[in-house]
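Input chain follows. Return structure tokens only.
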Amino acid sequence: MKEFWIYTALRAGLFVGAFCLVGGIWLLLADTVNVLLVIVIAFLVSGVASYVLLERQRSAFAAKVEGRAQRMSQRYEEIRAKEDTED
């Protein structure tokens, strides 16, 4: 679970940073700010940045999920094998 929260916090931080950056640039170039458009652009920028910058955290999270799925699958197979031998 730790990997999930770290990755999520970093993604949220990237979005907030991208929102501030895009909003600041927009304010420098125009008198009014279209907040919806700033949010969309910030979402796209943070998505690309997270794909590039958060590879290590994403891999750690994926490895944790894969390990957990393997353990659950192994337990399921053990229970199934146990049931087969009882019959």
